[in-house]
Amino acid sequence: MKAPRAAVALNPDALLSDRNVNMSNALTRASHGLGLAEKRLIASCIAKNDSMPMAEIHRKGAWTVRLSAAEYAETFEIGLDSAYEQLQQAADSLFNRYVRTVQETPKGPKEIKFRWVGKAEYHKGEGWVELHWWHEVVPHLFGLRQQFTSYKLKQTAALRSAYSWRLYECFKSWAGKGRYTPSIEEFHRAMDAKESHRANFKELRRRVIEPAVTELIEKNGLLIEWTTVNAGRKVVGLDFKFSANPQTSLF
């Protein structure tokens, strides 16, 4: 029997943008509750852990990672002052952000929430943020051998919308099929759609879907087609077909 594919750690000297962001598929498809700066911080810290062997993580006795403002600025091609500001704001708000998943049970849906981090430290003088991963999220980030999503950080570094980033991650989690077919409720959760967008599909399409699809086509070179799945006049799901453009793709 063929051994399951494992997440592979990269050379620790590799640029942060060349490292992998690895997450379980369950985490990838959940609600993340993150704005763009928070998403950048989380993804960068996941990528930094990609270069660290599991034995080293266990030896330290804590699931911690430190990201400097210089690394952040280089990865996302912004000024150092902007990097300081974004990191501080993201560190301040991240402690109150959580992952939300919904499981269907015979007695109805069960909602599960857990934090991203147990502690977030920002050192203004030295210009770094240190995250302590919450114990519930650790199994979704480390030691992954199957059912996980992986992409290089540079594949999302140019994105300017958290919606585009989340749609990209959902596509990557279904990359083997080239098709992403969420129910409308699953899509709302994955995109962390606002209540006004959930209540009005035209707003969801105008504010979330179309801008995200356009940005992924322009910046990642994806070929994307999508349509709604309807029950009568009601939209109950979405059907995305996507593939890499061999000439321009960053997928």
UniProtKB/TrEMBL annotation:
Domain Initiator Rep protein WH1: start-end pairs: 21-172
Protein name, UniProt field: Initiator Replication protein
A single MF term (Gene Ontology): DNA-directed DNA polymerase activity
Classification via SUPFAM superfamilies: Winged helix' DNA-binding domain (SSF46785)
Gene3D superfamilies, per the entry: Winged helix-like DNA-binding domain superfamily/Winged helix DNA-binding domain (1.10.10.10)
Family statement: Belongs to the initiator RepB protein family.
One of the GO BP terms on file: DNA replication initiation
Species the sequence originates in: Paraburkholderia diazotrophica
